[in-house]
Amino acid sequence: MILSLRTAGPAMLNHLKIRDFAIVASLELDFRAGFTVITGETGAGKSILMDALGLCLGDRAEAGLVRAGAERAEVSAGFDIRRHAEAQEWLRERELDGSPDDSQECWLRRTISADGRSRAWINGSPATLADVKALGEMLIDIHSQHEHQSLLKKDNHRALLDGCAGLTGDARTLAGLWQQWQRAAKELATLTREGDRQRERLDLVTHQLDELDKLGLAEGDYEKLEQEHDALANLGTLLQNGDSALDRLTENDSDNAARCVQQALKALEGERGRHPKLDVVAELLDSALIQIREGASSLRHYLDSLDADPARLTLLEDRLAAVHQLARKHRVPPAGLPELQAALATELAQLQRSQDLEALTREVAALEKNYQAAAAALRAARQKAATTLGTDVMARLTMLGMTNARFEVALSALEKPAAHGLDDIEFLISANPGQPLRPLAKVASGGELSRVSLAIQVVNAKHSPVPAMVFDEVDVGIGGGIAEVVGRLLRELGEYAQVFSITHQPQVAALGHQHLRVEKFVQDGHTSSRVRELAHDERIEEIARMSGGITITAETRKHAEAMLAGA
Known about the structure:
Strand content: 15-25%
CATH topology of the largest domain: Rossmann fold
CATH class of the largest domain: Alpha Beta
Radius of gyration: 40 Å
Structural class: alpha/beta
Strand order of the largest sheet: 1-3-2-5-6-7-8
CATH superfamily of the largest domain: P-loop containing nucleotide triphosphate hydrolases
Number of helices: 18
Distance between the termini: 29 Å
Largest sheet: 7 strands, mixed
Shape: flat
């Protein structure tokens, strides 16, 4: 089944393909931008879509997810990343961006075999689950009563505040200043603590490098020295054996290799043409004769070039002795001396820099001053942004019926500076009067946490780096006017991001830009699940069913039509 939904604006999650997953035999969905609602009877399989998507994003795989009787389950999700520079860069760095023609789309694919083994791919290339999860967190955020991937992590509170205030670049710059300061401070501390030892090492390295510089052995020189020395040391034997080889090749008048081959060719001359194999033999002998003559000529030139120079031999022996002496001293192979020389030169440069304690102290002080100035400016900007964010979130919590709630973005000074600044940042919430503000992750009620999450996401939508969001039954425990507010906030969020919501509330379902219904059916004795896009009249029936229970009356249909008209 292929469900195609098209609008002018690009969607983030474009495609979802499911095969032999849970009770889904085969399903292909094409999504669009905006707010998508997903409804259906309890047990119809609405959560299967989210489970399948979660699997693509790196969730744990279990053999029980494979459809009964199938060898394996397969799920693929296709994302449009043309406007997601961070995801594009992440893929390029790992060479997972596919071909240039496919650079605007990213595919995540996961399979689970019946024995529980799973595999993952990014754009067709095998990938680790760690990479799949890292990329998935950039692409889509899944929220439920018990799982808020981003908002329950305190580190993300700081990133969210910076994103809302446009401070992400400033925070990145501050982290760079911190790293520079810490590197220089560590070097200074090491120098101060180990100054005497480093000075001794500096003297030793300077002396060792001086010896190697005087030796002047370049890469490959040792092999050439050995080769030349061997030739001169064995010159007599070399000349004798070389002359003997020439004699046998070409210079013996009565019996040499070249003459023997010529005679063989002459013997076969009259037989050429009688059989193709004889022609091949003759060609091989012709080639052999040419090579014998060329080999003899090269050997003669080499022997002529040899010169019995005792002074040169002595010079080579002295130089090789010096090389071997230094190699033994440093416990490296003779040919490894040039590599050692380069390593010592690098170490010497580092030691010489470290010895300038006064200059390094000034550098550390300057780097700390730069960091502190940038951190103070960022702290001031964050304090201002925290007040604004808290006010905006509170306004939406009031709309969501949490009129007695208090929400605060708390900044508390750290004991010592950190890469991200001078303050710890955390979202705090008090859901009821008289209760103290507590960390967002410790809110007991799933319904309250869902509303807080929704309020924050709506405020952050214009700045969020995650352009697709899923809310799984975010409206549990609410109804009436508050349910309509939730729907309107999700629809508002859909103006800036792609939003999916599984809902049981007709007020929420009526406000979707598109409406998908999940249905369960039995065919040939097997239970399956399917998804349909609902046309306008079908939406009226579905919303009426959600509103009116078992019996759908004219009044419930009329009310459903009114809700759709008011979306």
